[in-house]
């Protein structure tokens, strides 16, 4: 009994499916009208131009054709309106017409179409410019006591290409990263950071939207450098100057690995003869030229005397 009911159910279900398929085939062969939003695509814009206003993304188009072709248009996004900007040099109102419509071969059974709205598209075009500018990190790395960041925060890549309207691109001298903060660090800091968001109204594009960053965190080292020659500058031709002493020693503080790269030859000590107003009974205060990211903690001796002889 149950087997007979099941067989009867299968027969009825099969008949229903066949009926639906037959109905669908008949219906889709009939002609209909259908209103659809069609994507607007700008084409043939010269390479040295850029659109600087917001144009309508779609236009309303009425199509006529059989059901199959209209369904294909509806679900496969097979139609576009091509806005030809080949001859647009500045501002223009471009009329929309049926000749701009492009549809796929699968939808060629659409027999007619008509643009309903908008009638025209306003397009504002400007000259395009492109240049490479540096990226400036807004990343703060605070270290734990006894540690230091060597060389600052480094980016890879450290520059970005900016493309957009010439009036907007020319004033740009740099691009900032988003802000990041790290505190009490004892180890290196690295990762990815996004670039700042520029207003959409500027119509500016960047060739990348994030960069890698790295901060070299090292343990601080205090190290002494001795026998650094003292050079006297701005000496008149008619006198001879001899610094006393002729060398000095200094103590420097920096990241351990970084500081160990240097020797006394990497430090330059000068005394400016013209700065005599700074001279007192103790002597002249020397100026130390040293590699970056190094702190000078002490100088021995702290003052230099000058021995002057007439030529």
Q: How does this model look, in words?
A:
With 311 residues, the chain is mostly beta strands. The protein is 15% helix and 53% strand. It has helices spanning 2-29, 67-76, 166-169, 256-259, and strands at 31-43, 49-51, 58-66, 79-84, 91-95, 101-103, 110-117, 120-143, 147-156, 159-165, 175-185, 189-194, 205-206, 210-233, 239-244, 247-255, 268-272, 287-289, 295-300, 305-310. The strands form 4 sheets. Strands 9, 12, 14, 16, 17, 18 and 19 form a 7-stranded mixed β-sheet that branches. Strands 2, 5, 8, 10, 11 and 13 form a 6-stranded mixed β-sheet that branches. The longest helix is centred in the N-terminal third of the chain and has 28 residues, at 2-29.
Unreliable spans are: 16-28
Using DSSP, what is the number of strands? 20
Summarize the helix and strand pattern as letters: HEEEHEEEEEEEHEEEEEEHEEEE
CATH architecture of the largest domain: Beta Complex
> What's the CATH topology name of the largest domain?
RNA Polymerase Alpha Subunit, Chain A, domain 2
Radius of gyration: 38 Å
Query: In percent, how helical is the residue content?
Result: 10-25%
Class based on secondary structure composition and strand pairing: mainly beta
The averaged pLDDT comes out at 85
What is the name of the CATH class of the largest domain? Mainly Beta
Silhouette: elongated
Distance between the termini: 134 Å
Number of helices: 4
What is the number of domains?
Answer: 3
The biggest sheet amounts to:
7 strands, mixed
């Amino acid at each position: 009994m149950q087997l007979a009911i099941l067989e009867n159910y299968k027969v009825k279900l099969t008949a229903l499916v066949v009926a639906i398929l037959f109905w669908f085939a008949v219906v889709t062969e009939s002609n209909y009208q259908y209103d659809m939003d069609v994507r607007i695509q700008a084409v043939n814009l010269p390479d040295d131009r850029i659109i600087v206003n917001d144009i309508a993304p779609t236009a309303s188009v009425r199509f006529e054709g059989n059901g199959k072709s209209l369904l294909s248009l509806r679900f496969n996004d097979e139609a576009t309106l091509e806005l030809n900007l080949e001859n647009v040099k500045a501002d223009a109102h471009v009329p929309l017409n049926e000749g701009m419509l492009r549809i796929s071969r699968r939808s060629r059974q659409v027999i007619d179409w008509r643009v309903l709205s908008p009638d025209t598209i306003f397009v504002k075009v400007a000259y395009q410019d492109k240049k490479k500018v540096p990226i400036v990190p807004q990343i703060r790395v605070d270290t734990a006591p006894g540690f230091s960041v060597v060389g600052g925060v480094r980016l890879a890549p450290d520059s970005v290409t900016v493309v957009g309207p010439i009036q907007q691109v020319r004033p740009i001298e740099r691009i900032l990263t988003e802000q990041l903060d790290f505190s009490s660090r004892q180890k290196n800091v690295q990762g990815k950071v996004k670039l700042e968001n520029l207003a959409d109204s500027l119509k500016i594009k960047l060739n990348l939207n994030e960069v890698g960053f790295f901060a070299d965190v090292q343990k601080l080292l205090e190290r002494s450098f001795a026998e650094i020659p003292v050079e006297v500058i701005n000496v008149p031709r008619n006198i001879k100057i001899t610094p006393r002493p002729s060398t000095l020693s200094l103590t420097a503080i920096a990241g351990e690995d970084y500081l160990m790269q240097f020797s006394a030859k990497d430090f330059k000590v000068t005394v400016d003869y013209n700065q005599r107003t700074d001279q007192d009974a103790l002597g002249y205060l020397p100026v130390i030229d040293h590699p970056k990211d190094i702190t000078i903690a002490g100088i021995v001796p702290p003052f230099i005397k000058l021995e002057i002889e007439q030529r």
